[in-house]
Write a structure and sequence with these properties.
The structure is a single chain. By secondary structure, the chain is α+β, with helices and mostly antiparallel strands. Among the domains are: 49 residues; 85 residues, no CATH class. Helix content is 51%, strand content 15%. It is built from 19 helices and 15 strands. Strands 4-5-6-7 form a 4-stranded mixed β-sheet, with no helix packed on it. Strands 3-2-8 form a 3-stranded antiparallel β-sheet. Strand 4 and strand 5 form a beta hairpin. Helix 5 runs parallel beside helix 13 and helix 6 crosses helix 15. The termini are far apart.
Length: 590
């Protein structure tokens, strides 16, 4: 340090040295930052170069080509073939269908009038053909997996409000017209299809169907605004709205849910075919024979082993099973060894796993018992369980949306069966109108859609838990769940097919039991002796011990009187318990 700097440092009390050290540290930090920044810039350049690499550009171009409407149609056609032809894909699709729908579903509305409308919709033969029967629901689940899209078209009788639903083949929907300001809001679906008449003539049609939630304030004005659709051909059919259900969505369209499994399923198929070819080639040779004598010895052995069928009859048949081979010295017969000449079928397990992974199910579902155990056979892993519950929730939402449309028209139609239970309110929303039902006071429009448990629990434990929830484990403090709810869940746990029908029978029995209990209570109240009455008098106030109304003469005997009193006390306590239980369960039995 120079003399001037030393003097300045002393005059400042050493602060000059501290500032110099701080400046040096900051300079070192700046150098490190500059090096790091240069490294980051270089890394960003490499990432940008990777994005424009030939591999990514080829993948992007494939995506642009495959995910056009024509490409999606081709994917759907391949997926439909794969779900029928390829065992891996067929098994995965079937597993999900069975888990979602095999145990059925229970649908009931709280209000009796609304429930009657919902059950009529479910029981309609036209609706059962495409949606509400067990077979139709399973078929729609399979279609949703392979096509990625479901289109439901509603035929509405605007006089009586009856709604019927039909499924449209997604391959016939070639465009979805959306709100210009919101691509997630569909307005119309363009359908192009061919219709074949009874005489064999074919006619091409192009039609536009409005989305089931799209209600413009003025159809005429809206048609004028969308006149460009006329250049594409076709007409708008306002009275048959359409609901679109997409899954595995990309833009406006859904995509086959096992699209990523198809390549691996084909790879596993090719692997097994090639392996079978190798095995078939090796199976051509069963044994290897070594003989002496060169070519002459080989020719002699060939003659001995050759067939004589060419001459018309077999005079040199093969030896029977368990025969003895006898040869002279120098002749050796050995089985043809294939050890190490081929590979095992288990070598393709990873290909199978890739296909199974696309479906979200463990490999044990594809029949590989070696990969499972007793625990996996009796249970379901949590991700798979959530996958099935998620799918059932989707179907619950689909049914709830359809039911809301059914109830809307049951109230809106002039002769609708629910016209007296509510009114339809039209709320303006820009160029559209939102229609909703305002129910009268006391009307409960809730519709309960319940699936049986995905995992098979112990039925005895499940019913015991429901009993404890209803009775609060035998305690009298507070109210448990309603008795009707507990009975309904018990029937679901038992796996009964028609829970709603059994519940109707149970409700009728409840009403009958309540009526009998009230009648018995009235009879007991009349028959019970008045505490202030003379013991020598009978129940009707007589002093002669004659028969009272409905009471036997034997009651005059003290022993029989005691038995009668015990019975009256027991019945009275039972009736009290019944009334308390009915009061706790919120039931009104009149």
């Amino acid at each position: 340090m120079a003399l001037a700097e030393q003097l300045a440092d002393r005059l400042t009390g050493g602060k000059l040295t501290e500032q110099a050290a701080t400046i040096a540290a900051l300079q070192e930090t700046n150098r490190e930052t500059a090096v790091s920044l240069a490294f980051v810039q270089e890394s960003m350049q490499r990432l940008e170069q990777a994005l424009f690499s030939p591999e990514w550009r080829v993948l992007t171009m494939q995506g642009d080509r495959e995910f056009t409407r024509a490409g999606l149609i081709a994917i759907t056609e391949i997926a439909r073939i794969m779900r029928i032809k390829n065992p891996l894909v067929k098994r995965g699709v079937k597993i999900q269908r069975l888990y979602v729908w095999a145990q059925g579903v229970s649908i009931a509305a709280a209000d009796p009038a609304i429930n009657e409308v919902i059950q009529a919709f479910l029981d309609d033969e036209r609706n059962q053909a495409d949606l509400t029967s067990h077979q139709a629901r399973g078929d729609r689940e399979v279609d949703l997996q392979s096509d990625g899209n479901l289109f439901f078209r509603f035929f509405i009788n605007q006089r009586n409000g009856r709604v019927r639903v039909r499924a449209i083949d997604p391959l016939e929907i070639d465009d979805i017209i959306t709100n210009p300001e919101d691509k997630r809001e569909p307005w119309f679906y363009r359908r192009s299809y061919s219709q074949t008449a009874l005489d064999g003539t074919t006619t091409a049609h192009t039609e536009y169907y409005p989305d089931w939630r799209f209600v413009p304030r003025s159809r005429v004005g809206f048609t004028n605004r969308t006149a460009t659709m006329g250049a594409m051909g076709g007409r708008i059919i306002w009275d048959t709205p359409v609901m679109h259900v997409p899954v595995n969505r990309l833009g406006k369209w859904g995509i086959c849910e096992y699209y990523d499994a198809n390549d691996w399923a084909l790879a596993y198929k090719n692997f097994l075919e090639q392996l079978a070819s190798v095995w078939a080639a090796l199976a051509r040779w069963a044994a290897k024979l070594t003989v002496q004598g060169g070519k002459r010895g080989v020719a002699a052995a060939k003659t001995k082993l050759n067939t004589t069928l060419a001459s018309g009859s077999e005079t040199n048949p093969p030896p029977t099973t368990g025969s003895m081979f006898i040869a002279s010295e120098g002749t050796d017969l050995q089985p043809f060894r294939t050890a190490g000449a081929t590979m095992s079928a288990d070598d393709g397990r990873r290909l199978q796993l890739m296909a199974a992974m696309a479906f979200g199910f463990p490999e044990t579902f594809w029949g590989d018992a070696k990969a499972g155990s007793l625990a996996t056979a009796k249970s379901l892993d949590r991700p798979t369980e959530l996958q099935i519950v998620d799918r059932q929730t989707l179907w619950r939402d689909i049914h709830q949306s359809i039911f809301q449309l059914v109830l809307l028209w049951a109230v809106k139609a002039p002769e609708g069966p629910l016209r007296g239970l509510g009114r339809v309110v039209r709320e303006p929303d820009g160029d559209q109108v939102i229609e909703r039902v305002v129910w009268n006071e006391g009307v409960d429009p809730n519709i309960v859609i319940s699936f049986p448990p995905v995992i098979e629990h112990d039925i005895k434990e499940t019913i015991g838990a429901l009993v404890d929830a209803q009775t609060l484990s035998g305690r009298s403090e507070g109210d448990g769940i309603p008795l009707e709810t507990a009975v309904h869940q018990m029937l679901v746990a038992l796996g009964l097919e028609d829970v709603d029908a059994v519940m109707d029978i149970w409700r009728e029995g409840q009403d009958e039991r309540a009526a009998r209990a009230e009648q018995m209570a009235a009879q007991m109240a009349q028959a019970a002796p008045d505490p202030g009455q003379n013991p020598d008098q009978n129940a009707n106030g007589g002093a002669d011990g004659n028969v009272g109304d409905g009471i036997d003469n034997n009651l005059a005997d003290p022993a029989m009187e005691a038995v009668w009193q015990r019975q009256v006390t027991a019945v009275t306590e039972l009736l009290s318990d019944l009334r308390e239980a009915m009061g706790q369960n919120g039931g009104n039995h009149e």
